[in-house]
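In this section we walk through a basic example: taking a raw amino acid sequence and producing a predicted 3D structure, encoded as discrete structure tokens. The instruction is simple. Fold the sequence below.
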Amino acid sequence: MKTTGQLARLIASAAPAMKQERIHPATRTFQALRIYVNRELDEIKALFEAAPQLLKPSARLVVISFHSLEDRIAKDSLREGAHKGIWEILTRKPVTAQEEEMERNPRSRSAKLRAAEKKTR
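The resulting token sequence is shown next.
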């Protein structure tokens, strides 16, 4: 295997797309490779660990996640920080794109925005 196209065809032949699914069968494989190679989950965790020291009181932390692994880290980190008195969560539920935006920008379908404000102690 020498190209991503070859890998995509191999994955598609092994796991054909579901009829209602608009996403190519290899999409999640490439996503998993990118997440692993770029250490994306570790970087997000590091951000949430550093943010309380980097931000001034009343500063707002806003995060847009594009897949469930990122969103779970954001949700849990903000919730844990709220329990410790660090954050006031501003978005009880994540903000997602409306139908009109998803029609104009299909990539927005997976985006979730969460926000919190650093408490003044």
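Looking at the output, two observations stand out. The helical segments are 4-14, 27-37, 40-54, 68-83, 99-104. The chain has a mean pLDDT of 92. In the next section we compare this with other chains.
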